[in-house]
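Justification of computing resources. Each target in the renewal requires a structure prediction run like the one illustrated here; the chain below, 139 residues long, is used simply to show the kind of job we budget for.
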Amino acid sequence: YKGGAPMMIDLVGGQVNVMFVSAPQAIPQVKAGRIKALAIGAARRIPQLPDTPTVAETLPGFAAQSWVGMLVPAGTPEEIVARLNAEATKALADPGVRGKLDAQGFDVVGSTPEEFLAFARAESEKWAKVIRDYNIRVE
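Resulting C-alpha cells:
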C-alpha cells in the first residue's frame, strides 16, 4: 500500500482480512466498531485499548511497533540539529501536546539525536535479520 489510508479503507471495506496498522490509525476505527483489534504489536498493552492483548502475550519476545522520528538532511549543522531537538523536546513536554498524542495512541519517547540514531540502527538490524532469515522478497 502507498500509505495507511488506502490500507485502512481496504480493511474496513473487507478487501483484506487482517493487517498490522499503527495504533493511532486503528484506535478510532476500533472505537467506532468498524474493525476489531486482535493484538497489539508493542511490548505492552496500550491504555486506549486495555482489553486488547499484546502479541507477546502469546509469542514471548515479540515486539513490533511503528515509530516516528524527526529527520533532517545529512550535513545539517549541529547547532540547527540541537535547536530542533530542544524545541521538539519542549513541545513534547507540553501537557496539551502530550495529551493529544497520548489520546491517539502515540507512545511519546523524546530523546537525543544520538539515542534516536542508535534506536533506528537497532530496528534496521533487527528487521534486516528477519528478512534474511525468512528469505522475504517483495512481490
